[in-house]
Structures are given as structure tokens and as C-alpha cells.
Write a structure and sequence with these properties.
Length: 527
């Protein structure tokens, strides 16, 4: 009697789905005379046998009990070894095995499948059996001995386990580089090939570039190598048919893609929804290798899984890129919105300031202009009592005109400042003249508020000459003193001028020192 071969990898998922149903559903499965689930130690977790009533076996008495106590394998050790292999390698197996009950030996055609958990392991198995015949004890032992002597080799077991693990690794990963590298490493190690290379593919590609590689150390790397789709016949055939294409070196269409001295190659396309998205190429450099049907079927299954994993990872990567781009655009729009909002606030503030400035400027312009018109009107109407008074009226009109001219110059200076073209002309200024002008303008205001007003100048024999812009210094001093008077309700306003010797460079010119003008707020000017 020969041992039936293991089931192909593609049956793993259907069997897993069946195993998760209630056992009552198996009654309708054709040929399922015996169905139960068990763990690796040989304990029933659920149980169904079509002939239970005939043999007066209560299924409830079997569950959660050891096989040795009830409906038991004729020899438990070989049987449980097979079960543990199924759980370890995650692959279903099919074989004949006798069970013993009520002094009878019943031979079943069994199919044992792992119940896969989400993390890719299995601790329980589902067993489906079709009754074949009743046997004597001698015949039952013969079936067991045949099974023991026809067990699969350890290399084959590692081969299947490794390929199954490759599939599960691909399913759990959504990173393209991880999928590519795990695929070539898993296939290369499991199949014992000299080299395994994977190439991504798009319908518009005319060249394929190697992105992951498994190779023996004696071979030169192919990572980054490009292959022409049209020049390599076997590549176009694999991509067009979605079937594995094997070829031999020095065969037409196979030369340039082969490793020098590589007798055998196998190319298989990865695909998703019947559209190729990659190509796996296997090299065998040390011998002429013929790929058997089991290997081809397994490679086809893995290629489909790789294609699905690549498609999902690509979609995830594209969605992430799109999300990042949308986030970047959203951040840019938010930044632009904030900038526009800030610009709007600044424009509104500038508009208010300009409105206030125009209102204040119109008032400032009107005051000296009214003074000029008033004094000149008095002269024109002959209201002056004598020439001296007439001269006084004309002088006041002149002073108002000069004041108006200064206001207009200030307005023009503001326009220059906004245009970035403001330049100050620095000229010699007598400190006494500056302070005298400040005194003439501000003392009446201080006396009107009954404040004491005093200006203290440096005790020097010669005039103190400043180097600066007279109009701007006067404007600053008048503003500061005016504010001091405005916010001082009693006491005194004192301006002090102090000469501070020391070499200072101003506009590439060396000056002998500076003068510090002190108020509640200090102002400095260079000598």
C-alpha cells in the first residue's frame, strides 16, 4: 500500500475555513464519515461519527477526553506524530489509518488540516475521514507500518514549512521592501537555488530592475541589474501567460538573463486580479534542474500571494503618499490663510492709522494756516494801530508759515520713510540754539500748568557744537518735553545737557564725544 502525497498548499485555506464551522455542518460534506477536532496531545475537542448510534457511542462522552480512553488510533504514537507535523509545518496531509473501538479495527482515509490562528500558528487540527473497511489487528498493524516507513524526509518537511512561512510573512506585511526581501530569501533557502531575484513590473515598463536578491556567496550580485522585457523572450512569455516558464542556458531568449554557467532558470510572474505586477527569476548554477509539478504548483501559489501583497502594499503606499500630499497642501492653505488674515489685520490697522494721521494732519495744517490768514487779514484790513504792530502781525504770519512748511516737510519725510528713501542730512548745530528753541516752544505750556521749567546747560567757555539734523533733534525734543508736560501734574520739568568726552566714529568720521540730554526719557546727540 502506498502513502498518498501531501495536499497542495492551495488547499490550506479551504480546509481552514471548513474547520472553523460547527461539526454538524460536516454531515453534508460528501464522503465525510468521521469528523473531529483535536489538539497535539491527542485530546478530542469536538467529535462526529456517522456510525455512532450503531456502535452505541455517545459523542458527548468523547469530547474533552484522551483518544486512548474512547475512540482511539490503533497506535497513537505514529498518529500523533503526524498530527504534530501538521501543526508545525502548517500543511494538511492525507493518509490511511486504523482506529480501534469495541474490539474492532476500522480503517479510514484521513485528511488532517491545521486550524490557523491570526498570527500564523496552529495548536489544533481538524480531521476528516472516509471509512474504507474493517480490518483485523494484523492488517491494521500493516497499515501503520506502511505509513511509518513511507514518512516524508526531513528536507521535504523543512521545504514545505519554509514556503508556508513565506506566504504568512507576505500576508502579514504591508511594506514593499519587506515583501520583496522575504520572498527571495524564503524561496532561495527553501528551494536550495543558487539565486532568486525579484523585479517589480508595470504595464508601461520596458525594463525591469532587480530590487531584492538571494544568492550564494560565490555569485556576483545582480541587485539593481536591469533586463529588457522585449529582448528576453522568457520574460515576455511569463508576464503574458502568468505561468512559470523554465528555460536552459544557451537556449534562444534565455542567454542574457542567465548567470554565466547557469544551466537552469525559472521565471514566474506575480499578479493581482490577473494583471502582472512583478517577476521572480530562479537560477540553478550548479546543475541542470527540472522543476516538478509540486514545486511549480507551490511557486504559482506563492507568486499569487506575493502579487496580492505587492498590490495591497502599493495601494497603501499610494494612499499614504496621497494623504501626505493632501496634508501638505492643507498645511500650505492654512499657512496662506493665516498670512492673508494677518495681512488683512495689518491692512485694517494701517487704514485706521492713516485715517487718524489724516485727521491729525488736517488739524495740524489748519492751525498755522488759520494763523497766517488771520494775521494777514488784520494787516489787509488796516487793523494795526501803528507800523510796529503791523510788523508784529507780519512776523507772526511768517512764523505760522514756517511752521506749516515744517509740517509739510514732515509729511513728505513720512512718504520717504515708507519708500525706504529717507536720508538725514547732518550739519553743525549749536546746543544753545537748540535748547533756546525748545524753551520758546514749551515754557508757555509748562507755565500754563503751573509747572516749574528749567534747562541746565554744560559749563563750558566755548559753544557746544552738535553734529546732527537740527529739525529732527528739535522734533524729538519737543515731543519728549511735550509728553513730560502733559503727564506731569505738579512739580518741575528739568532738561539737563551733559558733555561726555570720548572718541566716537559716526559715518566713518571720528567725533570727540557726545552730549546726553536728560528728561524722564533720555536723548543723545553726537558732538
Amino acid at each position: 500500500m502506498t502513502l498518498p502525497g501531501d495536499l497542495p498548499l492551495s488547499m490550506t485555506e479551504p480546509m481552514t475555513r471548513v474547520a472553523t464551522q460547527d461539526l454538524g455542518d460536516f454531515v453534508s460534506v460528501p464522503g465525510a464519515d468521521l469528523v473531529f477536532t483535536q489538539d497535539g496531545a491527542g485530546q478530542y475537542l469536538s467529535f462526529y461519527w456517522r456510525e455512532s448510534e450503531q456502535y452505541r457511542l455517545n459523542s458527548a462522552e468523547v469530547v474533552c477526553r484522551s483518544m486512548e480512553e474512547t475512540f482511539a488510533p490503533a497506535a497513537s504514537v505514529p498518529y500523533l506524530k503526524r498530527v504534530r507535523q501538521v501543526l508545525d509545518y502548517l500543511l494538511p496531509v492525507r493518509f490511511e489509518y486504523p482506529f480501534r473501538y469495541a474490539e474492532e479495527y476500522l480503517v479510514f482515509d484521513l485528511t488532517i488540516s491545521p486550524i490557523l490562528m491570526p498570527h500564523g500558528t496552529a495548536t489544533t487540527a481538524v480531521v476528516m475521514g472516509k471509512f474504507l473497511y474493517s480490518a483485523t489487528q494484523e492488517k491494521a498493524l500493516e497499515v501503520i507500518n506502511t505509513l511509518v516507513h513511507s514518512s516524508v524526509s526531513s528536507r521535504s518537511e523543512r521545504y514545505h514549512k519554509r514556503l508556508t512561512q513565506v506566504v504568512w510573512n507576505i500576508r502579514r506585511s504591508l511594506d514593499l521592501e519587506t515583501i520583496w526581501q522575504q520572498t527571495v530569501d524564503g524561496l532561495g533557502e527553501a528551494l536550495g537555488v543558487s539565486r532568486c531575484v525579484i523585479f517589480p513590473y508595470k504595464p508601461s515598463d520596458v525594463r525591469l530592475k532587480a530590487v531584492a536578491e538571494y544568492r550564494q556567496l560565490s555569485l556576483k550580485p545582480m541587485l539593481g541589474t536591469e533586463l529588457e522585457v522585449l529582448e528576453e523572450t522568457y520574460i515576455g512569455q511569463a508576464l503574458a501567460t502568468l505561468k512559470p516558464v523554465s528555460c536552459v542556458a544557451n537556449r534562444t531568449g534565455c542567454e542574457s538573463g542567465s548567470e554565466e554557467g547557469s544551466p537552469s532558470m525559472l521565471a514566474i510572474a506575480t499578479c493581482y486580479q490577473d494583471h502582472p505586477n512583478g517577476l521572480i527569476i530562479l537560477h540553478q548554477t550548479d546543475s541542470l534542474r527540472v522543476w516538478n509539478d509540486v514545486e511549480i504548483d507551490l511557486l504559482q501559489e506563492i507568486a499569487d500571494q506575493v502579487g496580492t501583497g505587492v498590490a495591497h502594499a502599493t495601494l497603501l503606499e499610494e494612499s499614504r503618499s496621497l494623504a501626505e500630499e493632501l496634508q501638505r497642501v492643507n498645511d500650505s492653505l492654512m499657512q496662506q490663510h493665516q498670512e492673508l488674515e494677518e495681512a488683512r489685520r495689518q491692512a485694517e490697522a494701517a487704514s485706521r492709522l492713516k485715517s487718524d494721521f489724516l485727521a491729525n494732519t488736517s488739524h495740524e495744517l489748519r492751525t498755522p494756516l488759520n494763523g497766517m490768514i488771520g494775521f494777514l487779514k488784520l494787516v489787509m484790513d488796516g487793523m494795526a494801530d501803528d507800523p510796529e504792530e503791523q510788523t508784529q502781525f507780519i512776523q507772526e504770519a511768517y512764523r505760522s508759515a514756517i511752521h506749516l512748511l515744517n509740517i509739510i516737510n514732515d509729511i513728505l519725510d513720512i512718504a520717504k520713510i515708507e519708500a525706504g528713501k529717507m536720508q538725514l542730512d547732518l550739519n553743525p548745530i549749536k546746543l544753545d540754539d537748540l535748547l533756546t528753541e525748545v524753551d520758546n516752544f514749551t515754557r508757555p505750556q509748562a507755565e500754563q500748568k503751573r509747572l516749574s521749567f528749567e534747562i541746565r546747560t554744560p559749563e563750558t567757555r566755548d559753544d557746544v557744537i552738535l553734529y546732527g539734523n537740527y529739525q529732527r533733534l528739535l522734533q524729538v525734543m519737543l515731543n519728549l518735553v511735550g509728553n513730560a508736560i502733559k503727564f506731569t501734574h505738579q512739580g518741575e520739568i528739568m532738561i539737563t545737557a551733559e558733555v561726555m568726552p570720548g572718541k566716537i566714529v559716526v559715518q566713518n568720521e571720528e567725533k570727540p564725544g557726545m552730549v546726553k540730554l536728560a528728561l524722564p526719557i533720555q536723548v543723545s546727540a553726537f558732538l
